[in-house]
Amino acid sequence: MSQKEAAPALVATTIPPLEITVDKAALDIKQTVLTELAKVTSINTPQEAEEVGELLKALKGLLDYVEESRKKIKKPFDDACKKIQSTVKEFTAEIENEDNRMRNLLAEYVSKQQEKQVEEVRSQGEVISSTSTGAGITTADVHKYEITDLKKAYEASPGLFDIVPRHAEIMAAIKSGAEIPFIKSWTEKSVRVSNK
């Protein structure tokens, strides 16, 4: 069964459509206070300052009341979001651990294969003559070589070499946050697993 045909991995109780309205008393207080404040263009007496202070207290009280209401409405949704995150994290922890372990094993395998290829190149020789002594025994003169300074040999004759990076070591350095000269790193979405 494909993922499109399968039931969802997570199932939640349905949240009914949310409707939020503002209480009429709160609307009236807001309108009254804002109308009175709009009349103020300057403050010239202690009495005017006191009246404005009272209006500002009313506004502050209204803001506090609205914030308290907002928190009460929002809390169940915040709790639901935390529950969703917790459930997903608990469910996927082992999967992610195994995914990471398998990726590391694959990276090690690829690195070993690349190192083998390099070793094979280093140890390969070319037969220039061979003679048989009978009884299935053959002797041969074989060209061999040893690279005494890989960097200098490469600089002198780059066409004779394939550069094979050590993938596992490079990835470990990148994951640790190291900046590697002449190596650019970035993050991409990768690995698609099909259950077909």
The backbone outline, from C-alpha atoms, is elongated
Content-based structural category: mainly alpha
What is the C-alpha radius of gyration, as a whole number of Å?
A: 37 Å
Helix content class? 55-70%
Strand residues, percent: 5-15%
End-to-end separation:
8 Å
- Main β-sheet: number of strands, strand sense, barrel status? 2 strands, antiparallel
Poorly predicted spans: 127-135, 191-196
* Number of E-type strands: 2
Q: Helices, strands, pairings?
A:
Elements: H1 24-38, H2 46-123, E1 126-134, E2 137-143, H3 150-156, H4 167-175
Antiparallel strand pairs: 1-2
Structure description:
This protein has 196 residues and is mainly α. It has one domain (24-175). It is 56% helix and 8% strand. It is built from 4 helices and 2 strands. The chain has helices at residues 24-38, 46-123, 150-156, 167-175, and strands at 126-134, 137-143. Strands 1-2 form a two-stranded antiparallel ribbon. A hairpin with a 2-residue loop joins β1 and β2. α1 (24-38) crosses α2. The longest helix has 78 residues, at 46-123. It is elongated and about 110 Å long. The N and C termini lie close together (8 Å). Residues 127-135 and 191-196 have low confidence and may be disordered.
In short:
The protein has helices spanning 24-38, 46-123, 150-156, 167-175, and strands spanning 126-134, 137-143. It is elongated. The protein has one domain.
Task: Give descriptors for this structure.
196 residues; mainly alpha; 56% helix
